[in-house]
Write a structure and sequence with these properties.
CATH topology of the largest domain: Rossmann fold
Enzyme class: ligase
Shape: globular
Number of helices: 18
Strand order of the largest sheet: 5-4-17-16-18-19-20
Helix content: 25-40%
Protein name: Propionyl-CoA synthetase
Family: Belongs to the ATP-dependent AMP-binding enzyme family.
CATH class of the largest domain: Alpha Beta
GO molecular function: propionate-CoA ligase activity
Bound molecules: coenzyme A, adenosine monophosphate
Number of strands: 31
Radius of gyration: 24 Å
Distance between the termini: 42 Å
Structural class: alpha/beta
Keywords: Ligase
Length: about 650
């Protein structure tokens, strides 16, 4: 790579991390408070590929909350909660945050939670969800947040894998068109799961009251006010830097979600590095990440990174459009004095669709706003160019995965903005040695497409393993290309070292920035009694990037109306995976296109659906099957043969 010719400090910093990773990361670790500072940055001998800061000891909540609350930032706002769906705004100072978290941690401790225990959090975007995450971190417990758009079955799978002592949930989440009652979903999930938590702490929201189960469920507000009245506060428990801070489940190719483990030391060091160097944000400034705490982006940039860095974080319970209009983000940016906004390209597309000329931007005072960062899916050059035009500020695409826990590549604003190339996610961050490999695992020359792989070891902050399974970690990520982590993204690196991410090499699709497994949806369709076989593909969508489309072949003896079965299939995916899957299209076809060896030709089906040129595969078993797919799509106004 020829990044030495790039402007700014980037090349020098990236090279320093490559030359002497020990010195680089021990220096970066100085941004944190440690109860026992690390003397070594990396131990190559433990875990599937090594562990970071093996002899360090610290507490994440102390670093994110207490050191600010006990210091100069006590009166500074830590969290600005803005909820257009409930008409609420709240400002919570670091001092108040410390009180809330220390008290809630005492409640959790009272319910038996200790260091290393798992706690599942199933909550909407309310301040209490952040208190919950931080209270777990305070006790050295491991939180596992489950996104509210998942159905009971998905929650049950996570309960069985994480085996939490306690579940923290709210009575409901609020979507613009409806109130989503979480408690019945939680009750159903606990019913389905083999593992039963000892207790559930339920936050009753005024929009919907939950019925509590005697002996198991506790009322959040009552428990917290009793603890506060008794003056109960839990102290921060020091943990090993290699201990898990959280487990976050993400779609795997088998349909069984993977529990991505995040270790405390590596995560905090990496996040602390990014705030000034990648995002160009200073302590005391306001950072607004318009994601959800159920996703990795929310864990990192709504909660831990801004708080670690002594920033004010914005907690936004609303949508980019419809709450009430396409100016919502700009209003929040103006009112909170946000300097850096982070969102998904799909949100930008939604705003652009409603406000193509960007007129709503001018309604607000954006004088403090400096940059917009995008991630979660490919940022289409049209939307990036549109945002640059209407905002007149850097719009920076950056690439990462739940597994990595912080960006793999981006344009490091804090080190000096590099030339922007639309469609590219720019250059690798320190510690990420990114290469493009061919199918045999050999690096390819610049400009050649292949699988994007990261040479081991991964930098701090990336997953050290999968929950409870070093073996699955090795098999999923490290076995394909020995010596590398396989990102399962395809892409290309150009002669300047810029990385372009083109799409997944597995069955993961990205729907409105949400990562979903088509394999998981196929499993749901296949379990319908009338379905003989099925295939789900991601079809290009102008708003959501991709949406799933399922093709089903009915069993020979089925005499019912196909349309009725298709409706049942749509409802079944919503019921078993959740509304977030956005599964609205099930199409009945006489047969699935397959190769002579029986492999379903999903890639060709996708090309047809996306209106892309395609050729009849030489190995096809029955060519009429592809024509039937085209005809069925055309009938619904999608793609065509
Ligand atoms: N709890 C319950 N249901 C939820 C939910 C939650 N937290 N989040 C989404 N859903 C539901 C929605 O209500 C919708 O249900 P519906 O089928 O009844 O309409 C469904 O899940 C699909 O949601 P979504 O894909 O978000 O579509 P949308 O039409 O509601 O909104 C956008 C479209 C573009 C505004 C929205 O997808 C968005 O803001 N995306 C940004 C994603 C993001 O930040 N990703 C993080 C990665 S960086
Ligand atoms: P998630 O684990 O939900 O963060 O999803 C990770 C996947 O999203 C990656 O493997 C990519 O396929 C995709 N992705 C994330 N950010 C980008 C980006 N900036 N450009 C292209 N794809 C991206």
């Amino acid at each position: 790579m020829t990044s030495a010719s790039l402007p700014g400090r980037y090349s020098e910093v990236y090279a320093a991390a490559g030359r002497d990773p020990e010195a680089f990361w021990l220096e970066a670790a100085r941004a944190l408070d440690w109860s026992r500072p690390p003397t070594r940055a990396f131990d190559p001998g433990s875990g599937p590929y090594g562990r970071w800061f093996p002899d360090g000891e610290l507490n994440a909540c102390h670093n994110a909350v207490d050191r600010h609350a006990d210091g100069a930032r006590r009166e500074q706002v830590a969290i600005r909660y803005d909820s257009p769906v409930t008409g609420t705004k709240r400002a919570i100072t670091y001092g108040q945050l410390q009180d809330e978290v220390a008290t809630l941690a005492a409640v959790l401790a009272d319910l038996g939670v200790t260091k290393g225990d798992r706690v599942v959090i199933y909550m909407p975007m309310v301040p209490e969800a952040l208190y919950a995450m931080l209270a777990c971190a305070r006790l050295g417990a491991v939180h596992s947040v489950v996104f509210g758009g998942f159905a009971a079955n998905e929650l049950a799978v996570r309960l069985d894998d994480a085996r939490p002592k306690l579940v923290l949930a709210a009575s409901c989440g609020i979507e613009p068109a409806r109130t989503v009652a979480y408690k019945p979903l939680l009750d159903a999930a606990i019913g389905l799961a083999s593992h039963k938590p000892d207790a559930c702490l339920i936050l009753q929201r005024p929009q919907c009251a939950a019925t509590l189960v005697d002996g198991r469920d506790r009322d959040w507000a009552e428990a917290v006010s009793a603890a506060a009245a008794a003056g109960q506060r839990a102290a921060c428990v020091p943990v090993a830097a290699t201990d898990p801070l959280y487990v976050l489940y993400t779609s795997g190719t088998t349909g069984k979600p993977k529990g991505v483990v995040r270790d405390v030391g590596g995560q905090l060091v990496a996040l602390a590095w990014t705030m000034p160097n990648l995002y160009g944000v200073a302590p005391g400034e306001t950072y607004f990440c318009a994601s959800d705490i159920g996703w990795v982006v929310g864990h990192c940039y709504i909660v831990y990174a801004p708080l670690l860095h002594g920033c004010t974080t914005v907690l936004y319970e609303g949508k980019p459009v419809g709450t009430p209009d396409a100016g919502a983000f700009w209003r929040v940016v103006a009112e909170t004095g946000t300097v850096c906004l982070f969102t998904a390209p799909t949100a930008l597309r939604a705003i652009k669709k409603e406000d193509p000329r960007g007129e709503r931007v001018a309604d607000h005072d954006l004088s403090r706003f400096r940059s917009l960062f995008l991630a979660g899916e490919r940022a289409d050059p049209d939307s990036v160019a549109w945002a640059e035009r209407v905002l007149d500020r850097p719009v920076i695409d950056h690439w990462w995965q739940t597994e990595t826990g912080w960006p793999i590549a981006g344009n490091p604003l804090g080190l000096g903005l590099l030339p922007v190339k639309h469609g590219s996610t720019c250059v690798p961050m320190p510690g990420y040695r990114v290469e493009i490999l061919d199918e045999g695992g050999k690096p390819v020359p610049a400009g050649t497409m292949g699988t994007i792989a990261i040479r081991l070891p991964l930098p701090p902050g990336c997953l050290p393993t999968l929950w409870g399974s070093d073996e699955r970690m090795r098999a999923s990520y490290l076995a394909t290309f020995p010596g590398y982590y396989d990102t399962s993204d395809a892409g290309v690196i150009d002669a300047d070292g810029y990385i372009t991410v083109l799409g997944r090499t597995d069955d993961i699709i990205n729907v409105a920035g949400h990562r979903l497994s088509t394999g998981g949806m196929e499993a749901v369709l296949a379990s319908h009694p009338d379905v003989a076989e099925c295939a789900v593909i991601g079809v290009r969508d102008t708003l959501k990037g991709e949406v799933p489309c399922g093709f089903v072949v009915l069993k020979a003896n089925v005499a019912r109306e196909a349309a009725e079965i298709e409706r049942e299939l749509v409802a079944k995916v919503r019921d078993e995976i959740g509304p977030v899957a956005a599964f609205k299209l099930a199409l009945t076809v006489p047969r699935l296109p397959k190769t002579r060896s029986g492999k379903i030709l999903r890639a060709t089906m996708k090309r047809i659906a996306d209106h892309e040129p395609w050729t009849m595969p030489a190995t096809i078993d029955d060519a009429t099957a592809l024509d039937e797919i085209g005809a069925s799509l055309e009938q619904r106004g999608i793609g065509g043969a």
